[in-house]
Amino acid sequence: MFTDSNQAGEAVDAEKGAAAGEEVVRFHLRGASAMVHFESCAKIEVESPRGKVLVVPRANVFQRRLFEAYETLLAVGVPEIRLLGLKIRQCGGTTAACHLLYHHAQRFRSEMLVLADVRANAAAMLRKMRTFSSHDSFPWNNALRPTKERMEWANGSVVEITSAEASNPGISRTRSAVLFSEACKYPRGGEKDDKGIMASVLPSVNRLGIAESTPEGASGWFYEQWHGSRELPGALTLDEYLAGLKRGERSPGNGWVKVFAAWYEFAENARPVGEGERERILRTLTVRERRGMGAYGWTVEQVAWRRDTLARVCGGSEDLFDEYYPEDEVGCFLASGRPRFDMASVVAMERLTHGVTVEEGHLDVQEEGVVFTPDGGGYAPIQMWERPRVGCRYLLWCDPATGAEQTEGRDPDAYSIGVIRDGYTMGGVVRKPRVVARVRPPCTEESDRIARYIVGLSRFYGECMVVLEVNMGLHILERIKDAGLPLYKREVVDPYDRKTRRYMYGWKLKDRDQRRALIDCLALAIRDEAVEIPCPHILKEARNFIVNKSGREEARSGCHDDDITGLAMGLYCLGSATLYRSPMRRRRKPADWGEWRRWPNG
Protein backbone atom coordinates (compact mmCIF):
# COMPACT_ATOMS: atom_id res chain seq x y z
CA MET A 1 0.00 0.00 0.00
CA PHE A 2 1.53 3.31 -1.06
CA THR A 3 1.25 6.20 1.39
CA ASP A 4 1.42 8.99 -1.16
CA SER A 5 1.45 9.74 -4.85
CA ASN A 6 5.24 10.28 -4.94
CA GLN A 7 5.89 6.71 -3.76
CA ALA A 8 3.41 5.37 -6.30
CA GLY A 9 5.11 7.28 -9.10
CA GLU A 10 8.54 6.02 -8.06
CA ALA A 11 7.24 2.44 -8.11
CA VAL A 12 5.81 2.87 -11.59
CA ASP A 13 9.09 4.36 -12.81
CA ALA A 14 11.00 1.46 -11.24
CA GLU A 15 8.76 -1.06 -13.01
CA LYS A 16 9.23 0.75 -16.32
CA GLY A 17 12.97 0.85 -15.75
CA ALA A 18 13.08 -2.86 -14.97
CA ALA A 19 10.99 -3.63 -18.06
CA ALA A 20 13.27 -1.43 -20.17
CA GLY A 21 16.31 -3.18 -18.72
CA GLU A 22 14.87 -6.58 -19.53
CA GLU A 23 14.14 -5.43 -23.06
CA VAL A 24 17.74 -4.25 -23.45
CA VAL A 25 18.97 -7.65 -22.22
CA ARG A 26 16.67 -9.45 -24.66
CA PHE A 27 17.86 -7.16 -27.46
CA HIS A 28 21.50 -7.95 -26.81
CA LEU A 29 20.71 -11.67 -26.48
CA ARG A 30 19.16 -11.67 -29.93
CA GLY A 31 22.39 -10.37 -31.36
CA ALA A 32 24.72 -12.50 -29.23
CA SER A 33 22.84 -15.82 -29.13
CA ALA A 34 22.20 -17.71 -32.35
CA MET A 35 19.35 -19.68 -30.77
CA VAL A 36 17.60 -16.63 -29.30
CA HIS A 37 17.92 -14.87 -32.64
CA PHE A 38 16.57 -17.98 -34.43
CA GLU A 39 13.46 -18.09 -32.21
CA SER A 40 12.75 -14.35 -32.19
CA CYS A 41 14.09 -12.59 -35.27
CA ALA A 42 14.51 -15.20 -38.04
CA LYS A 43 11.84 -16.49 -40.41
CA ILE A 44 11.64 -19.72 -42.37
CA GLU A 45 9.33 -21.03 -45.08
CA VAL A 46 6.87 -23.79 -44.13
CA GLU A 47 4.14 -25.56 -46.04
CA SER A 48 0.53 -24.68 -45.27
CA PRO A 49 -2.88 -25.24 -46.93
CA ARG A 50 -2.35 -21.88 -48.60
CA GLY A 51 1.12 -22.78 -49.85
CA LYS A 52 4.43 -21.68 -48.40
CA VAL A 53 4.26 -19.10 -45.61
CA LEU A 54 6.90 -17.38 -43.49
CA VAL A 55 6.90 -18.11 -39.74
CA VAL A 56 9.17 -17.47 -36.78
CA PRO A 57 10.57 -20.93 -35.93
CA ARG A 58 10.69 -22.73 -32.62
CA ALA A 59 13.91 -24.73 -32.18
CA ASN A 60 13.49 -28.48 -31.68
CA VAL A 61 15.76 -30.69 -29.58
CA PHE A 62 18.37 -31.27 -32.31
CA GLN A 63 18.53 -27.60 -33.26
CA ARG A 64 18.87 -26.58 -29.60
CA ARG A 65 21.77 -28.99 -29.10
CA LEU A 66 23.49 -27.68 -32.21
CA PHE A 67 23.10 -24.07 -31.05
CA GLU A 68 24.19 -25.01 -27.51
CA ALA A 69 27.38 -26.67 -28.74
CA TYR A 70 28.29 -23.67 -30.92
CA GLU A 71 27.60 -21.06 -28.25
CA THR A 72 29.34 -23.02 -25.48
CA LEU A 73 32.52 -23.57 -27.48
CA LEU A 74 32.46 -19.92 -28.55
CA ALA A 75 32.09 -18.82 -24.92
CA VAL A 76 34.99 -20.94 -23.61
CA GLY A 77 37.25 -19.60 -26.33
CA VAL A 78 37.82 -22.67 -28.51
CA PRO A 79 39.85 -21.27 -31.43
CA GLU A 80 38.57 -23.74 -34.05
CA ILE A 81 35.01 -24.98 -33.55
CA ARG A 82 34.11 -28.28 -35.26
CA LEU A 83 30.52 -29.58 -35.05
CA LEU A 84 29.35 -32.95 -36.40
CA GLY A 85 25.55 -33.24 -36.56
CA LEU A 86 23.81 -36.59 -37.10
CA LYS A 87 20.12 -35.94 -37.67
CA ILE A 88 16.84 -37.70 -38.34
CA ARG A 89 14.93 -37.06 -41.53
CA GLN A 90 13.32 -33.61 -41.97
CA CYS A 91 14.19 -32.31 -38.50
CA GLY A 92 15.42 -28.91 -39.70
CA GLY A 93 19.07 -29.70 -39.16
CA THR A 94 20.16 -28.02 -42.40
CA THR A 95 18.02 -24.98 -41.59
CA ALA A 96 19.65 -24.60 -38.16
CA ALA A 97 23.15 -25.07 -39.60
CA CYS A 98 22.47 -22.44 -42.29
CA HIS A 99 21.21 -20.05 -39.62
CA LEU A 100 24.36 -20.64 -37.56
CA LEU A 101 26.49 -19.57 -40.50
CA TYR A 102 24.20 -16.60 -41.21
CA HIS A 103 24.34 -15.43 -37.57
CA HIS A 104 28.12 -15.93 -37.55
CA ALA A 105 28.40 -13.80 -40.70
CA GLN A 106 26.43 -10.99 -39.08
CA ARG A 107 28.55 -10.94 -35.91
CA PHE A 108 31.98 -11.58 -37.43
CA ARG A 109 33.40 -10.62 -40.80
CA SER A 110 33.85 -14.03 -42.42
CA GLU A 111 34.75 -15.76 -45.68
CA MET A 112 32.37 -18.75 -45.65
CA LEU A 113 31.48 -21.73 -47.82
CA VAL A 114 28.35 -23.89 -47.93
CA LEU A 115 28.92 -27.24 -49.62
CA ALA A 116 25.76 -29.26 -50.35
CA ASP A 117 25.67 -32.83 -51.63
CA VAL A 118 23.98 -31.98 -54.97
CA ARG A 119 23.31 -28.81 -56.97
CA ALA A 120 19.57 -28.78 -56.24
CA ASN A 121 20.21 -28.74 -52.49
CA ALA A 122 22.82 -26.01 -52.93
CA ALA A 123 20.18 -23.84 -54.60
CA ALA A 124 17.73 -24.56 -51.77
CA MET A 125 20.30 -23.54 -49.15
CA LEU A 126 20.99 -20.30 -51.02
CA ARG A 127 17.26 -19.53 -50.78
CA LYS A 128 17.32 -20.23 -47.02
CA MET A 129 20.19 -17.79 -46.51
CA ARG A 130 18.44 -15.10 -48.54
CA THR A 131 15.24 -15.60 -46.56
CA PHE A 132 17.15 -15.17 -43.28
CA SER A 133 18.73 -11.96 -44.53
CA SER A 134 15.61 -10.48 -46.18
CA HIS A 135 13.24 -11.02 -43.22
CA ASP A 136 15.57 -10.56 -40.25
CA SER A 137 13.94 -8.23 -37.70
CA PHE A 138 17.17 -7.57 -35.80
CA PRO A 139 18.81 -4.25 -36.79
CA TRP A 140 22.22 -5.47 -37.90
CA ASN A 141 22.57 -2.48 -40.26
CA ASN A 142 24.32 -4.85 -42.62
CA ALA A 143 22.86 -4.63 -46.12
CA LEU A 144 22.90 -7.73 -48.37
CA ARG A 145 24.40 -7.70 -51.86
CA PRO A 146 23.44 -11.12 -53.30
CA THR A 147 24.73 -12.63 -56.53
CA LYS A 148 23.88 -15.88 -58.33
CA GLU A 149 26.01 -18.27 -56.24
CA ARG A 150 27.14 -16.17 -53.29
CA MET A 151 25.98 -13.62 -50.74
CA GLU A 152 27.93 -10.56 -49.63
CA TRP A 153 27.05 -8.16 -46.83
CA ALA A 154 28.17 -4.62 -46.12
CA ASN A 155 30.43 -5.75 -43.24
CA GLY A 156 32.52 -7.80 -45.70
CA SER A 157 31.13 -11.23 -44.85
CA VAL A 158 30.77 -13.50 -47.88
CA VAL A 159 29.02 -16.86 -48.28
CA GLU A 160 29.72 -18.92 -51.38
CA ILE A 161 27.37 -21.85 -52.02
CA THR A 162 28.29 -24.84 -54.18
CA SER A 163 27.97 -28.64 -54.19
CA ALA A 164 30.13 -31.78 -54.01
CA GLU A 165 29.26 -32.34 -57.70
CA ALA A 166 31.36 -29.35 -58.72
CA SER A 167 34.92 -29.75 -59.94
CA ASN A 168 37.36 -29.18 -57.04
CA PRO A 169 34.69 -27.58 -54.81
CA GLY A 170 35.74 -24.93 -52.34
CA ILE A 171 39.54 -25.05 -52.67
CA SER A 172 40.09 -21.58 -54.06
CA ARG A 173 41.03 -19.74 -50.80
CA THR A 174 41.11 -19.70 -47.01
CA ARG A 175 37.75 -19.80 -45.23
CA SER A 176 36.60 -18.62 -41.80
CA ALA A 177 33.70 -21.06 -41.74
CA VAL A 178 32.36 -23.97 -43.79
CA LEU A 179 29.11 -25.92 -43.72
CA PHE A 180 29.20 -29.45 -45.18
CA SER A 181 25.55 -30.33 -45.72
CA GLU A 182 24.46 -34.01 -46.08
CA ALA A 183 28.12 -35.03 -45.83
CA CYS A 184 27.22 -38.76 -45.73
CA LYS A 185 25.83 -38.43 -49.25
CA TYR A 186 29.00 -37.04 -50.82
CA PRO A 187 30.58 -39.30 -53.48
CA ARG A 188 32.84 -42.03 -52.10
CA GLY A 189 35.81 -43.24 -54.06
CA GLY A 190 36.55 -42.36 -57.65
CA GLU A 191 37.54 -38.96 -58.95
CA LYS A 192 35.12 -37.17 -56.59
CA ASP A 193 35.71 -38.60 -53.15
CA ASP A 194 34.35 -37.36 -49.81
CA LYS A 195 37.72 -37.79 -48.09
CA GLY A 196 39.45 -35.92 -50.89
CA ILE A 197 36.93 -33.06 -50.66
CA MET A 198 37.39 -32.78 -46.89
CA ALA A 199 41.17 -33.00 -47.15
CA SER A 200 41.22 -30.13 -49.65
CA VAL A 201 38.82 -27.81 -47.77
CA LEU A 202 39.24 -28.40 -44.01
CA PRO A 203 42.92 -27.34 -43.66
CA SER A 204 41.97 -23.85 -44.87
CA VAL A 205 39.09 -23.43 -42.33
CA ASN A 206 40.35 -21.42 -39.36
CA ARG A 207 37.26 -20.68 -37.24
CA LEU A 208 34.09 -22.75 -37.68
CA GLY A 209 33.36 -26.07 -39.39
CA ILE A 210 29.93 -27.74 -39.38
CA ALA A 211 29.18 -31.10 -41.00
CA GLU A 212 25.60 -32.34 -40.77
CA SER A 213 23.85 -35.28 -42.40
CA THR A 214 21.33 -38.05 -42.20
CA PRO A 215 23.13 -41.44 -42.05
CA GLU A 216 23.96 -43.40 -45.18
CA GLY A 217 26.12 -46.49 -44.89
CA ALA A 218 28.80 -47.51 -42.40
CA SER A 219 31.63 -45.97 -44.42
CA GLY A 220 32.99 -42.69 -45.66
CA TRP A 221 34.48 -39.58 -44.05
CA PHE A 222 31.50 -38.70 -41.85
CA TYR A 223 31.20 -42.24 -40.43
CA GLU A 224 34.92 -42.45 -39.67
CA GLN A 225 34.95 -39.05 -37.98
CA TRP A 226 31.91 -39.96 -35.87
CA HIS A 227 33.04 -43.41 -34.71
CA GLY A 228 36.77 -43.16 -35.24
CA SER A 229 39.02 -45.65 -36.99
CA ARG A 230 42.09 -47.72 -36.33
CA GLU A 231 44.31 -44.68 -36.77
CA LEU A 232 42.18 -41.90 -35.22
CA PRO A 233 39.77 -41.48 -32.26
CA GLY A 234 36.13 -40.62 -32.87
CA ALA A 235 34.18 -37.43 -32.19
CA LEU A 236 33.14 -36.57 -28.61
CA THR A 237 29.93 -35.29 -27.06
CA LEU A 238 29.97 -31.70 -25.80
CA ASP A 239 30.42 -32.81 -22.16
CA GLU A 240 33.27 -35.17 -23.12
CA TYR A 241 34.93 -32.43 -25.15
CA LEU A 242 34.69 -29.89 -22.31
CA ALA A 243 36.11 -32.47 -19.89
CA GLY A 244 39.06 -32.94 -22.25
CA LEU A 245 39.64 -29.18 -22.31
CA LYS A 246 39.69 -29.16 -18.50
CA ARG A 247 42.38 -31.85 -18.57
CA GLY A 248 44.49 -29.52 -20.70
CA GLU A 249 43.97 -31.22 -24.06
CA ARG A 250 44.24 -28.74 -26.91
CA SER A 251 41.87 -30.62 -29.24
CA PRO A 252 40.12 -33.50 -27.41
CA GLY A 253 39.21 -36.59 -29.44
CA ASN A 254 39.62 -35.83 -33.12
CA GLY A 255 38.60 -32.19 -32.66
CA TRP A 256 34.93 -32.70 -33.59
CA VAL A 257 31.96 -32.36 -31.22
CA LYS A 258 29.10 -34.67 -32.15
CA VAL A 259 25.46 -33.62 -31.90
CA PHE A 260 22.67 -36.19 -32.06
CA ALA A 261 19.01 -36.49 -31.09
CA ALA A 262 17.02 -39.73 -31.41
CA TRP A 263 13.58 -39.67 -33.03
CA TYR A 264 11.74 -40.22 -29.73
CA GLU A 265 13.36 -37.09 -28.23
CA PHE A 266 11.37 -34.85 -30.59
CA ALA A 267 8.11 -33.74 -28.97
CA GLU A 268 6.30 -33.74 -32.33
CA ASN A 269 7.01 -37.45 -32.94
CA ALA A 270 3.96 -38.68 -31.07
CA ARG A 271 0.28 -39.12 -31.94
CA PRO A 272 -2.68 -38.84 -29.56
CA VAL A 273 -4.49 -42.15 -28.98
CA GLY A 274 -7.85 -43.02 -27.49
CA GLU A 275 -8.33 -45.43 -24.61
CA GLY A 276 -9.40 -48.28 -26.89
CA GLU A 277 -6.44 -47.82 -29.22
CA ARG A 278 -4.10 -47.60 -26.23
CA GLU A 279 -5.23 -51.00 -24.97
CA ARG A 280 -4.93 -52.48 -28.48
CA ILE A 281 -1.38 -51.16 -28.90
CA LEU A 282 -0.33 -52.53 -25.52
CA ARG A 283 -1.76 -55.96 -26.42
CA THR A 284 0.07 -56.09 -29.77
CA LEU A 285 3.52 -54.75 -28.83
CA THR A 286 6.35 -56.27 -30.86
CA VAL A 287 9.67 -57.33 -29.37
CA ARG A 288 11.27 -54.19 -30.80
CA GLU A 289 8.57 -51.95 -29.31
CA ARG A 290 8.87 -53.60 -25.89
CA ARG A 291 12.62 -53.07 -25.96
CA GLY A 292 12.14 -49.41 -26.92
CA MET A 293 9.67 -48.80 -24.09
CA GLY A 294 12.01 -50.47 -21.61
CA ALA A 295 15.34 -49.04 -22.80
CA TYR A 296 14.30 -45.58 -24.02
CA GLY A 297 10.97 -44.97 -22.31
CA TRP A 298 8.81 -44.84 -25.44
CA THR A 299 5.23 -43.84 -24.69
CA VAL A 300 2.17 -45.39 -26.30
CA GLU A 301 1.73 -42.15 -28.28
CA GLN A 302 5.27 -42.50 -29.65
CA VAL A 303 4.68 -46.15 -30.56
CA ALA A 304 1.52 -45.11 -32.44
CA TRP A 305 3.49 -42.45 -34.36
CA ARG A 306 6.24 -44.96 -35.11
CA ARG A 307 3.74 -47.51 -36.49
CA ASP A 308 2.12 -44.86 -38.70
CA THR A 309 5.49 -43.66 -40.05
CA LEU A 310 6.74 -47.21 -40.54
CA ALA A 311 3.73 -48.03 -42.74
CA ARG A 312 3.32 -44.70 -44.53
CA VAL A 313 6.91 -43.57 -45.12
CA CYS A 314 9.04 -46.71 -44.84
CA GLY A 315 6.82 -49.32 -46.50
CA GLY A 316 6.96 -51.50 -43.38
CA SER A 317 10.77 -51.76 -43.44
CA GLU A 318 12.37 -51.59 -39.99
CA ASP A 319 15.79 -51.02 -41.59
CA LEU A 320 14.52 -48.03 -43.55
CA PHE A 321 12.93 -46.57 -40.41
CA ASP A 322 16.23 -47.00 -38.54
CA GLU A 323 17.97 -45.10 -41.33
CA TYR A 324 15.42 -42.27 -41.53
CA TYR A 325 14.61 -42.05 -37.82
CA PRO A 326 17.50 -43.49 -35.79
CA GLU A 327 17.06 -44.36 -32.14
CA ASP A 328 20.81 -44.46 -31.52
CA GLU A 329 23.99 -43.31 -33.25
CA VAL A 330 25.19 -46.81 -34.19
CA GLY A 331 22.28 -48.74 -35.69
CA CYS A 332 21.39 -45.98 -38.16
CA PHE A 333 24.70 -46.39 -40.02
CA LEU A 334 24.36 -50.17 -40.07
CA ALA A 335 20.82 -50.04 -41.47
CA SER A 336 21.32 -47.43 -44.17
CA GLY A 337 22.22 -47.92 -47.82
CA ARG A 338 20.71 -51.44 -48.13
CA PRO A 339 24.00 -53.22 -47.33
CA ARG A 340 24.37 -56.75 -48.70
CA PHE A 341 26.40 -58.01 -45.76
CA ASP A 342 25.42 -58.06 -42.11
CA MET A 343 26.80 -54.73 -40.90
CA ALA A 344 26.89 -55.72 -37.24
CA SER A 345 29.22 -58.60 -38.11
CA VAL A 346 31.35 -56.42 -40.40
CA VAL A 347 31.77 -53.78 -37.68
CA ALA A 348 32.61 -56.49 -35.11
CA MET A 349 35.31 -57.82 -37.46
CA GLU A 350 36.66 -54.29 -37.92
CA ARG A 351 37.06 -53.89 -34.17
CA LEU A 352 39.07 -57.12 -34.04
CA THR A 353 41.49 -55.80 -36.67
CA HIS A 354 42.58 -53.03 -34.27
CA GLY A 355 44.50 -55.55 -32.19
CA VAL A 356 45.94 -57.59 -35.07
CA THR A 357 49.52 -57.09 -36.23
CA VAL A 358 50.31 -57.35 -39.92
CA GLU A 359 53.74 -58.20 -41.31
CA GLU A 360 54.75 -56.34 -44.44
CA GLY A 361 57.62 -57.35 -46.65
CA HIS A 362 58.92 -58.97 -49.83
CA LEU A 363 58.91 -62.53 -51.17
CA ASP A 364 62.18 -63.69 -52.71
CA VAL A 365 62.04 -66.84 -54.86
CA GLN A 366 65.28 -68.80 -54.38
CA GLU A 367 66.51 -72.27 -55.29
CA GLU A 368 65.92 -73.54 -51.77
CA GLY A 369 62.38 -72.07 -51.69
CA VAL A 370 60.62 -68.78 -51.08
CA VAL A 371 61.86 -66.44 -48.33
CA PHE A 372 59.69 -63.73 -46.75
CA THR A 373 61.73 -60.66 -45.79
CA PRO A 374 59.93 -58.21 -43.48
CA ASP A 375 60.26 -54.55 -44.43
CA GLY A 376 59.08 -51.94 -41.96
CA GLY A 377 59.72 -48.95 -44.19
CA GLY A 378 59.07 -48.01 -47.77
CA TYR A 379 56.72 -49.92 -50.06
CA ALA A 380 56.28 -53.57 -49.09
CA PRO A 381 54.00 -55.36 -51.57
CA ILE A 382 53.06 -58.36 -49.37
CA GLN A 383 50.88 -58.17 -46.26
CA MET A 384 50.82 -61.25 -44.01
CA TRP A 385 48.73 -62.00 -40.93
CA GLU A 386 49.72 -65.64 -40.45
CA ARG A 387 52.74 -67.66 -41.60
CA PRO A 388 52.15 -71.10 -43.15
CA ARG A 389 51.54 -73.94 -40.69
CA VAL A 390 52.25 -77.62 -41.28
CA GLY A 391 49.05 -79.62 -41.65
CA CYS A 392 46.88 -76.65 -42.70
CA ARG A 393 45.30 -76.27 -46.13
CA TYR A 394 45.70 -73.11 -48.23
CA LEU A 395 44.24 -71.61 -51.38
CA LEU A 396 45.21 -68.50 -53.35
CA TRP A 397 42.62 -66.37 -55.17
CA CYS A 398 43.21 -63.87 -57.95
CA ASP A 399 40.50 -61.57 -59.29
CA PRO A 400 42.35 -59.83 -62.14
CA ALA A 401 42.06 -56.34 -63.49
CA THR A 402 41.03 -56.01 -67.10
CA GLY A 403 44.56 -55.26 -68.31
CA ALA A 404 47.32 -52.67 -68.11
CA GLU A 405 45.34 -50.10 -70.06
CA GLN A 406 42.53 -50.30 -67.46
CA THR A 407 44.88 -49.90 -64.47
CA GLU A 408 45.60 -46.27 -65.28
CA GLY A 409 43.83 -43.02 -64.49
CA ARG A 410 42.54 -41.57 -61.24
CA ASP A 411 40.27 -44.49 -60.33
CA PRO A 412 41.78 -47.63 -61.88
CA ASP A 413 40.58 -51.19 -61.80
CA ALA A 414 42.82 -53.32 -59.56
CA TYR A 415 43.91 -56.90 -58.94
CA SER A 416 42.81 -58.70 -55.81
CA ILE A 417 45.30 -61.41 -54.79
CA GLY A 418 45.10 -63.15 -51.42
CA VAL A 419 45.58 -66.42 -49.57
CA ILE A 420 42.94 -68.06 -47.38
CA ARG A 421 43.53 -70.85 -44.89
CA ASP A 422 40.89 -73.52 -44.38
CA GLY A 423 39.51 -74.13 -40.90
CA TYR A 424 40.94 -76.85 -38.67
CA THR A 425 40.63 -78.35 -35.19
CA MET A 426 43.58 -78.71 -32.84
CA GLY A 427 43.44 -79.85 -29.24
CA GLY A 428 39.67 -79.57 -29.23
CA VAL A 429 39.82 -75.93 -30.38
CA VAL A 430 38.10 -75.10 -33.68
CA ARG A 431 39.85 -72.54 -35.88
CA LYS A 432 37.80 -70.73 -38.51
CA PRO A 433 38.93 -70.20 -42.10
CA ARG A 434 41.09 -67.09 -42.22
CA VAL A 435 42.57 -64.65 -44.71
CA VAL A 436 46.30 -65.02 -44.00
CA ALA A 437 48.08 -62.97 -46.69
CA ARG A 438 47.53 -60.72 -49.66
CA VAL A 439 49.18 -58.39 -52.15
CA ARG A 440 48.91 -54.84 -50.83
CA PRO A 441 45.90 -52.99 -52.29
CA PRO A 442 45.32 -51.31 -54.62
CA CYS A 443 47.41 -53.50 -56.91
CA THR A 444 47.61 -52.01 -60.41
CA GLU A 445 50.97 -53.29 -61.62
CA GLU A 446 51.86 -54.95 -64.93
CA SER A 447 50.99 -58.59 -65.53
CA ASP A 448 54.59 -59.90 -65.27
CA ARG A 449 54.95 -58.59 -61.74
CA ILE A 450 51.47 -59.86 -60.85
CA ALA A 451 52.46 -63.34 -62.01
CA ARG A 452 55.59 -63.16 -59.80
CA TYR A 453 53.46 -62.22 -56.78
CA ILE A 454 51.16 -65.19 -57.42
CA VAL A 455 54.06 -67.61 -57.88
CA GLY A 456 55.78 -66.34 -54.74
CA LEU A 457 52.71 -66.50 -52.51
CA SER A 458 51.63 -69.91 -53.79
CA ARG A 459 55.07 -71.45 -53.26
CA PHE A 460 55.48 -69.81 -49.85
CA TYR A 461 52.26 -71.54 -48.75
CA GLY A 462 53.39 -74.94 -50.05
CA GLU A 463 52.53 -74.48 -53.73
CA CYS A 464 48.90 -74.04 -52.78
CA MET A 465 46.01 -74.18 -55.24
CA VAL A 466 45.51 -71.05 -57.37
CA VAL A 467 41.95 -69.99 -58.26
CA LEU A 468 42.17 -67.49 -61.09
CA GLU A 469 39.15 -65.86 -62.64
CA VAL A 470 39.68 -66.16 -66.39
CA ASN A 471 36.95 -63.84 -67.64
CA MET A 472 39.71 -61.24 -68.02
CA GLY A 473 42.77 -62.99 -66.59
CA LEU A 474 44.02 -64.92 -69.62
CA HIS A 475 47.09 -62.67 -69.92
CA ILE A 476 48.61 -64.17 -66.72
CA LEU A 477 47.18 -67.72 -66.95
CA GLU A 478 50.02 -68.95 -69.19
CA ARG A 479 52.68 -67.55 -66.87
CA ILE A 480 51.20 -69.43 -63.92
CA LYS A 481 50.99 -72.66 -65.95
CA ASP A 482 54.63 -72.30 -66.95
CA ALA A 483 55.57 -72.02 -63.27
CA GLY A 484 54.01 -75.44 -62.64
CA LEU A 485 51.58 -74.27 -59.95
CA PRO A 486 48.37 -76.25 -59.26
CA LEU A 487 45.57 -74.39 -61.05
CA TYR A 488 41.88 -74.73 -60.27
CA LYS A 489 39.90 -76.37 -63.10
CA ARG A 490 36.21 -76.04 -63.80
CA GLU A 491 33.99 -78.67 -65.38
CA VAL A 492 32.31 -77.63 -68.62
CA VAL A 493 29.93 -79.34 -71.05
CA ASP A 494 30.98 -79.58 -74.70
CA PRO A 495 28.88 -76.96 -76.55
CA TYR A 496 28.51 -79.23 -79.60
CA ASP A 497 27.29 -82.61 -78.37
CA ARG A 498 25.95 -81.29 -75.00
CA LYS A 499 27.13 -84.54 -73.33
CA THR A 500 30.89 -84.69 -73.17
CA ARG A 501 32.35 -83.14 -70.03
CA ARG A 502 35.84 -81.76 -69.87
CA TYR A 503 37.92 -79.59 -67.55
CA MET A 504 39.30 -76.13 -68.25
CA TYR A 505 41.69 -73.95 -66.28
CA GLY A 506 40.38 -71.19 -64.03
CA TRP A 507 37.15 -69.97 -62.54
CA LYS A 508 34.69 -68.31 -64.89
CA LEU A 509 31.49 -66.50 -63.98
CA LYS A 510 28.87 -67.63 -66.46
CA ASP A 511 25.80 -65.65 -65.42
CA ARG A 512 24.16 -63.50 -62.77
CA ASP A 513 22.86 -66.51 -60.83
CA GLN A 514 26.36 -67.90 -60.40
CA ARG A 515 27.63 -64.53 -59.20
CA ARG A 516 24.77 -64.34 -56.72
CA ALA A 517 25.63 -67.82 -55.40
CA LEU A 518 29.22 -66.65 -54.95
CA ILE A 519 28.19 -63.54 -52.98
CA ASP A 520 25.66 -65.54 -50.94
CA CYS A 521 28.47 -67.84 -49.82
CA LEU A 522 30.50 -64.90 -48.49
CA ALA A 523 27.44 -63.17 -47.00
CA LEU A 524 26.51 -66.28 -45.03
CA ALA A 525 30.07 -66.66 -43.72
CA ILE A 526 30.17 -63.00 -42.62
CA ARG A 527 26.74 -63.13 -41.00
CA ASP A 528 27.66 -66.22 -38.96
CA GLU A 529 31.20 -64.86 -38.41
CA ALA A 530 32.41 -68.18 -39.81
CA VAL A 531 35.49 -66.62 -41.43
CA GLU A 532 38.21 -64.38 -40.00
CA ILE A 533 39.02 -61.29 -42.09
CA PRO A 534 41.86 -59.28 -40.50
CA CYS A 535 42.30 -57.14 -43.63
CA PRO A 536 40.79 -53.62 -43.20
CA HIS A 537 40.64 -53.08 -46.97
CA ILE A 538 38.38 -56.12 -47.50
CA LEU A 539 36.10 -55.01 -44.65
CA LYS A 540 35.94 -51.50 -46.10
CA GLU A 541 34.70 -52.94 -49.40
CA ALA A 542 32.20 -55.08 -47.47
CA ARG A 543 30.74 -51.94 -45.87
CA ASN A 544 30.31 -50.36 -49.32
CA PHE A 545 28.80 -53.42 -51.01
CA ILE A 546 25.07 -52.84 -51.42
CA VAL A 547 21.95 -54.00 -53.23
CA ASN A 548 20.97 -51.30 -55.72
CA LYS A 549 17.45 -50.30 -56.74
CA SER A 550 17.33 -52.91 -59.52
CA GLY A 551 18.34 -55.69 -57.12
CA ARG A 552 21.92 -56.08 -58.36
CA GLU A 553 24.59 -56.67 -55.73
CA GLU A 554 27.48 -54.30 -56.38
CA ALA A 555 29.81 -51.73 -54.86
CA ARG A 556 28.39 -48.36 -53.91
CA SER A 557 28.90 -45.69 -56.55
CA GLY A 558 32.54 -44.60 -56.61
CA CYS A 559 33.74 -47.70 -54.69
CA HIS A 560 35.28 -51.03 -55.71
CA ASP A 561 34.43 -54.69 -55.09
CA ASP A 562 37.61 -56.44 -56.32
CA ASP A 563 38.34 -57.94 -52.89
CA ILE A 564 34.73 -58.98 -52.36
CA THR A 565 34.66 -60.98 -55.60
CA GLY A 566 38.11 -62.43 -54.96
CA LEU A 567 37.45 -63.52 -51.37
CA ALA A 568 34.01 -64.89 -52.29
CA MET A 569 35.64 -66.94 -55.05
CA GLY A 570 38.30 -68.23 -52.65
CA LEU A 571 35.77 -69.13 -49.98
CA TYR A 572 33.51 -70.84 -52.51
CA CYS A 573 36.40 -73.01 -53.77
CA LEU A 574 37.94 -73.64 -50.34
CA GLY A 575 37.29 -77.37 -50.66
CA SER A 576 40.09 -77.44 -53.25
CA ALA A 577 42.69 -76.02 -50.83
CA THR A 578 45.97 -77.95 -50.73
CA LEU A 579 47.90 -79.28 -47.73
CA TYR A 580 51.03 -77.54 -46.49
CA ARG A 581 53.82 -79.96 -45.62
CA SER A 582 57.10 -79.31 -43.88
CA PRO A 583 59.52 -78.12 -46.58
CA MET A 584 62.34 -80.59 -47.31
CA ARG A 585 65.76 -79.19 -48.17
CA ARG A 586 67.34 -81.09 -51.01
CA ARG A 587 71.00 -81.98 -50.63
CA ARG A 588 72.88 -80.15 -53.34
CA LYS A 589 75.48 -82.09 -55.31
CA PRO A 590 78.89 -80.55 -55.98
CA ALA A 591 79.22 -78.68 -59.24
CA ASP A 592 81.73 -81.26 -60.58
CA TRP A 593 79.67 -84.28 -59.47
CA GLY A 594 79.63 -85.63 -63.05
CA GLU A 595 83.41 -85.94 -63.09
CA TRP A 596 83.67 -87.97 -59.89
CA ARG A 597 84.68 -91.64 -60.10
CA ARG A 598 83.70 -94.30 -57.61
CA TRP A 599 86.52 -95.74 -55.46
CA PRO A 600 87.22 -99.42 -56.30
CA ASN A 601 86.14 -100.60 -52.82
CA GLY A 602 82.86 -98.67 -53.14
Describe this structure in words.
The strands form 6 sheets. The chain has an 8-stranded mixed β-sheet with strand order 5-6-7-4-8-9-3-10, sandwiched between helices. Strands 11, 12, 13, 14, 15, 18, 19 and 24 form an 8-stranded mixed β-sheet that branches. α2 crosses α4, α3 packs parallel to α4 and α4 packs across α5 (119-134). Mean pLDDT is 84; it is low at 403-410. The chain has 602 residues and is α/β, with parallel strands linked by helices. Helix content is 36%, strand content 20%. It has 3 domains: 60-261, P-loop containing nucleotide triphosphate hydrolases (Rossmann fold, 3-Layer(aba) Sandwich); 271-337, no CATH class; 351-579, Nucleotidyltransferase, domain 5 (2-Layer Sandwich), CATH 3.30.420.240. The chain contains 19 helices and 24 strands.
